[in-house]
Amino acid sequence: MLKVGINGYGTIGKRVADAVAAQPDMTVVGVAKTQPNYEAHAAVRRGYPLYAAIPERAPLFSEAGLELAGAVDELVAEADIIVDATPSGIGAENRSLYESHDTPALLQGGESADVADVSFNARANFDAAEDADYARVVSCNTTGLSRVIAPLQEEYGVEKVRATLVRRGGDPGQNTRGPINDILPNPIHVPSHHGPDVKTIFTDLDIDTMGLKVPATLMHVHALNVTLDERVTAAHVQALLEQENRLYVIPEGMGIDGVGKLKNFALDAGRPRGDLWENCIWGESIGVRGRDLYLFQAIHQESDVVPENVDAIRAVMGLEPQDESMRLTDDTLGVGI
Ligand code: NAD
């Protein structure tokens, strides 16, 4: 069993911990927390050994009635690999800690690409992580774009991608973010940084992106236009995308007209935390004009990178080839609608 440590147990870290715990070939040896808050209590209830991310704060944990297994340094020493899910920029600072123990690590999409040896998406470039010690699992938006671009590129060839990203203002717990009542071109500069981030996965891709932020917490929505190398039919594209386990093409007639109902759909299905690991593409939105393909997709920012982290662990550690890893991850988590 591969021993996985999780440093940073917030929105992404807690989901990755549960996903790792569900795998037959890996186990969670501990999670590191900065403070003894509700998430620390939840981690202990779930049976994960708790480590202090900031050793000087250890007494706060015992005062809160939480038993610590040690400090983060000991977790890094104990683990075969660390998943760093700390806030943007902290992962870069933590890399030297991992290096000092010769422990490989995954970093997340909030870090700049040069912090890691490789940027990772399971569908698009699994094998690129083979010789890496430090891999960056790209952001929720880049993951969502990469998953849909990969099959289009393989099947038809892609001349140019244009995407407008309507981004949630913050996650449900991020009550200091916004806007509360506005629609912000964000980033205001065009094209946005998202396109270059996708190019860390598809080096030669021609892609331009624009972003907005809206008063919503549930999901992002992408309006996507892809100029393909050949003329296709919408039905052919739909059939192609339906073959992908991490793409859910919402069938006509489901009555899912927005992300609110998508989240209800996930909750009704009994998904943990109402998570939607798959890109959710409205089947009715798939349209073709000549070589131009159009579609809308919704991306659950809190969870789409979770199966990618599990696969990145296997890729970096050389545990399983791409197909087997993705199948195992999807089967154990219940990915695929
Ligand atoms: P978060 O704020 O929800 O969780 C981060 C956790 O790390 C918190 O519990 C925080 O207390 C803890 N932390 C802070 N400093 C720490 C330190 N020095 N050592 C250990 N833990 C520390 O953040 P998140 O949303 O889970 O984001 C984590 C990373 O994942 C970021 O790079 C982010 O860009 C990326 N990401 C986030 C989302 C998203 O929508 N939430 C989606 C994809 C990728």
Q: Top keywords for this entry?
A:
337 residues; Rossmann fold; 8-stranded parallel sheet; 8-stranded mixed sheet; 12 helices; globular
Task: Please give a structural write-up.
- The chain is an alpha/beta fold.
- The protein has 12 helices and 16 strands.
- It folds into 2 domains: 2-138 and 305-333, 3-Layer(aba) Sandwich (Rossmann fold), CATH 3.40.50; 140-299, Dihydrodipicolinate Reductase, domain 2, CATH 3.30.360.
- The strands form 2 sheets. The chain has an 8-stranded parallel β-sheet with strand order 4-3-2-1-5-6-8-7, with helices on both faces. Strands 9, 10, 11, 12, 13, 14, 15 and 16 form an 8-stranded mixed β-sheet that branches.
- α1 crosses α11 (306-317) and α11 (306-317) packs antiparallel against α12 (322-333).
- The two termini are 29 Å apart.
- The model has no long low-confidence stretch (mean pLDDT 98).
- It binds nicotinamide-adenine-dinucleotide.
Number of helices: 12
Measure the end-to-end span.
29 Å
Task: Give the name of the CATH superfamily of the largest domain.
Answer: NAD(P)-binding Rossmann-like Domain
CATH topology of the largest domain: Rossmann fold
